[in-house]
Structure formats: structure tokens, C-alpha cells
Amino acid sequence: MLWLVLLPFRLLLAVVFGLLVLPLAVVLLPLALLLWVPFLLVKFTVRLALGLLLIPLMLVGGLLGVLLFGIAAVAALVPLLPLAFLAVLLWMVMRRPMVVSSL
């Protein structure tokens, strides 16, 4: 419960310390950004290089996956061809003849 009693003092000290450190942070911010720029350039360069290397590999992998999926789908549907043939025959036998109207 003591922390609750001391909370206003901690908040006051935090605000005072923040106001005292604010000018220092404003002065040092450009220096920190200036030191950070080379790291950003290295990060961009590495991402670009890896992207240029990996995009063709991902395209080849995707095409290979699509090809294998197509082969697997055809292989899975081949046993259904006799049933499809019977369905087409049944449809041809059961369909209504076209009505030809004479004018």
C-alpha cells in the first residue's frame, strides 16, 4: 500500500526528470539518426539482395507445386472416368428430343 501513497511523488519526479532530459534528447536525436542511417542502408541492401535471389526460387517452387498439384488432381480423377462416361451416356439416353416447330 505504500506504493499507492508514494505514487504522486513518483509521477512528479518522472515528469520533472522527463522535462530535464527533453532538451538533451532533442539535441542528441539528430546524432542518433545520423548514426542509424548506415544501418538502415545495410538493412535495405541485404533485403534487396535476398529478395532478388529468392524471388526466382519462389517462382520455380510455386510452378513446381502447381504442376505437381495438377498431376495429383488428374491422378485422383482418373478412376472417376468410367462413372463420367456412364453419366454422359445416361444423359444422352434420357434427354428430351428437341421440339422442332413448323412455321
What is the string of helix and strand elements? HH
Low-confidence stretches: none
Global outline: elongated
Q: Whole-Å distance between the termini? A: 102 Å
Strand content: under 5%
- The gyration radius over C-alpha positions equals 37 Å
Structural class: mainly alpha
Based on the structure, what is the oligomeric state of the protein chains?
single chain
Average pLDDT reading: 92
- Domain tally: 1
SSE diagram, text form:
Blueprint: H1 2-77, H2 81-94
Please summarize what this structure is.
By secondary structure, this protein is an all-alpha fold. It has two helices and no strands.
List keywords for this structure.
mainly alpha, 2 helices, elongated, 103 residues
Task: Give an overview in words.
The protein is mainly α and about 100 residues long. It has one domain. The chain is built from 2 helices and no strands. The termini are far apart. The relative contact order is 0.03. The mean pLDDT is about 90.
